[in-house]
Amino acid sequence: MTTAKTREIQLVSRPVGEPRPEDFSLVETETPALAPGQILVRNTWMSVDPYMRGRMDEGTSLILPAFELGAPLNGAAVGDVIESRADGVPIGATVVHFLGWREHAVLDAAEATVIDTSLAPAPTYLGPLGTTGLTAYAALTDITPVREGDVVFVSAAAGAVGSVAGQLARKLGAAKVIGSAGGTDKARHLVDAFGYDIGLDYRAEPLAEQLAKAAPDGIDLYVDNVGGDHLEAALEALRPGGRAVLIGAISGYNATDPIPGPANLFRIVERRLTLRGIQVSEYLGLFPEFIGRAAGWLADGSLRAEETVVDGIEQAPAALIGVLRGANTGKMLVRLD
Length: 337
Ligand code: NAP
Prior knowledge:
Blueprint: E1 5-11, E2 24-30, E3 38-47, H1 52-55, E4 71-72, E5 77-84, E6 94-97, E7 104-108, E8 113-114, H2 131-143, E9 151-154, H3 160-171, E10 176-181, H4 184-192, E11 198-201, H5 207-214, E12 219-224, H6 228-237, E13 238-246, H7 267-270, E14 274-277, H8 287-300, E15 307-311, H9 316-325, E16 331-335
Parallel strand pairs: 9-10, 9-12, 10-11, 12-13, 13-14, 15-16
Antiparallel strand pairs: 1-2, 3-5, 3-7, 3-16, 5-6, 6-8
Helix pairs in contact: 2-3, 5-6
The structure holds NADP nicotinamide-adenine-dinucleotide phosphate (NAP).
């Protein structure tokens, strides 16, 4: 077994506010020799996720440790096994694992999951069949289950989690599904591509006013990917006994000052609202059930999956900056082959 030259994206400085290309560096390095039980994976697709922004800050992410300066970033990736010293994971297997942001990864086979690419293409396991799809599924089946006849509002509704959440809400019995996204094209796409009843462009007019018009009798369930003004607008629109699942708060990820909370939190008391957070890491055991159902929906066309793809590892920093700005529709991915 030999070592081989490869490239990885390292973090070289911690951003203040929005990350800049200079915060990253593309570094040539060598893969280490395999120890017993390890595999060498040629990564083919890498996931680009908003939560990575929190890991660029010093020790502030409560979810995963901060990225180290002068070391490669990491995150979900899929790739092909090109060398193996592990029983059960042969050369040629396609695996999903967590050593992305590099062209090749050496890892213990126990940290990789072999995926079935006859069920769905490999990149789908980073989007609708990956943790983003699972987040939407766990949110709407376990954290705040959709009830028959619900009026549901989803923010960041054209993104990876949001586009699946809007479609699942409908499948699970919602009577009306409203989404918000940035820009007229994306708002229209919510209706045309993802089956939302109404698409709101939050950049066009104040969101609370648009939501009041879209749901004059209020909403029953809010799927929050954005926080900030979106959460405030949803609290105003939720009916008595309404529920919200708090998935993310991307409107504040690049903030340099403390973010004020919604001014109307007392609505929770007045209207007996339930707000629950979710961490998808607690739902990984749901993957077999979820993949079993969602692969069928993808195959029969009743779940639409979109991707925004950039090519080449050198484009990965721009993709991360882009996902925080709304450059994507559906799942943001970097293709390496
Ligand atoms: P995504 O929605 O595919 O991409 C992020 C989107 O956020 C952008 O495309 C942009 O869309 C929108 N956005 C950015 N800044 C905004 C702002 N100031 N106001 C409103 N929208 C803004 O990303 P994702 O991977 O699916 O993640 C969505 C959310 O879920 C994130 O908050 C993420 O951290 C969270 N998440 C949480 C978990 C968990 O376990 N709790 C798991 C996965 C993801 P527009 O063009 O529409 O603005």
